[in-house]
Structure formats: C-alpha cells, structure tokens
Amino acid sequence: MILPTLRHRDFFATPFIGSASALASAVFFLLHTCASAQEYPAKPVRIVVPSSPGGGTDILARQIAAKLTERWGQPVIVDNRPGAGQMIGLELVAKSPADGYVLAMAATPLAVNSALYKKVPYDPVRDFAPVTQVAAMPNILVAHPALPARTIRQLLALAKARPGELTYSSSGVGTGPHLSMELFTFMAGVKLEHVPYKGTNPAMVDTISGHVQMLMSTLLPPLPHLKTGRLRAIGVTSAKRLTSLPAVPALAEGVPGYEVVGWYGMVAPANTPRAIVSKLQKEIASILQATETREKLAADGAEPVGSTPEEFGAFIKSELVKWAGVVKAAKLPME
Q1: What is the rounded distance in angstroms from the CA atom of residue 268 to the CA atom of residue 280?
Q2: pLDDT tens digits, 287-298
Q3: What is the rounded CA–CA span in Å between residue 294 and residue 290?
Q4: DSSP reduced 3-state for 97
Q5: Is the pTM of this model over 0.85?
Q6: Domain with 63 in it: what CATH number?
C-alpha cells in the first residue's frame, strides 16, 4: 500500500492536532507501562494458593516464591485461601488490582468449576491473564495399609464385590484428584464413595488414620508417607509408570486407556499490563529451566513447562472443553 505524502504544512494543520494529542498520549502510556515493568516489583508480591498448605499447588507455589524472592530482593509471599473447590482464592485474585502484585497459582479446577457449579464468581478466561503453565504432574491413588487390596486388579475386584462401600478422600469436590477418580471409576465400571475435604492435608491425615480407606491426591504430598509405610501406593494416573516411582503401576494397567495429568500455572488478574505479565513469564520460565529446579521436579514426578502466556491461555481453553466432557460422561450433578 502506498502511503500519502505528508507535506510540511499539513503536519501543523488544525485537523491533525487531535491525532497528535492522541499519539502523544499513546506514547506516554507506552513509556509509563515500560517504566512500571522495569520498576516491578517495587513492593512485596502475593501468590494466592486456593488450597490448603501441604498440597501440590502449595508446594510448587512456595518453590517459585522462594526463587523469585532471591532474584528480586522483594518478598514473594504465599497466601493460602482454600475452600469452595478453589473458587474462594481464585475469586480474590480475579477481583484484585491488575498491577502484578496479587497472583494465583492455579490448577485444574480453574478449568473444571464451570462444569460443576451453577454459580462461579469469575470467568476462567475473561477474568484472568495467563502467565505460564508451571508444571504437569500426574495424580496418585494411595491407600491405608489395612485395605485388603494391594494391586489395581484386586481393588477393582473388591469394589465390584462391595459397590459403594469403599471410600476415598480428595482435596475437594471438583478438584483435579476428585475428577481423576471419577473418570477412573467411570471407565472401570465401579462405584466408590467420595469423601471431600478442604485441602489435601486433612484428606491425607484422615486416610493415614484409617477414617477413609483411600486418597486420590496430587503426587507430592503422599510421597514421604509412602516411604514410611503409613500409606501404600495403588497407582499413578499417567499413561505409563514414572521413572521416579518405577514400582508403582499406572492405573491404565488395570483400566486400559485411562490417563489424567494434572497441571499448575500462574495467572494474574485480567488487564495486568502486558510488560509485567511478560516479565513474570520470563522469570518463572528461567527458574523452571534451572538444573536444580528440573531435577527436583523430576524427582517428584513432575515435568516443568514454562509456556508463553498465549500457549497457556490456549491450553486453559482446551481444558475447559475436556473437563466439561468428563463431568458430563460421569453424570456428576451440577451444584
């Protein structure tokens, strides 16, 4: 396209004054935004974890927060706000100022709640600015040692012989572990009784004490208790066994085709300046690429991601479609 020639006198013509003013305003805004990003963070940053301490979301958030504190010289604080299928914490972040000082370590429920609840106090796409997917990690089904089933096949046989009698706990209705188990029981054709808790830790405590027979959890929290024998692993939700837990079978070995991999990611309130989102993404991706971080995550059965905001946004949209299908197939009632 050939642009019209701008003559010297035209530049100062009256009709252009408004455009020049708008251009000046745009330049000022751009420079102000860049300056804000360079200064960021100028005060402590809060990462809201919408679940209780001790769960996989909490553990990853604290790892990231510690590294960001080291790099920035500003405190990065983890603030646990559990409840309502993670909606309490996520709503808090959605309604926070869009300045990069209140973030959320989100997980699978961000993409699930819309299919489970009639009233969700935020829109999972419109109300958040995706920063980066932090990690992907399977869940794990563990049991109290007294459960008379040591293998997947034994568990399925017991569940079929005693439909609805066996119990399992999770970190709450609509969480990734809950839906992982719902998909497993649906595909296996068995019925188990779900006992939801407000977080992984209380669910795990009651499983260890024998009040509940099994726990479907994110991978990290039960690992110490597997080593001590207080819990026994039944299987992981990945398609294949993990190199970090070679003795633990994949649930797919008993239910062919079954696979669920949970995810964690950082989000900010919608309309957070692009420059701040970009800085956060680059910092977190750099932390995830560090050998120390990668080795630690690999030992825990997690895979670091560090995707771009655009990639993470597209991923969240695909998860919304996927889990809506799972909820419908499992015939879970909308609350």
Answers
A1: 10
A2: 999 999 998 888
A3: 6
A4: coil
A5: no
A6: 3.40.190.150
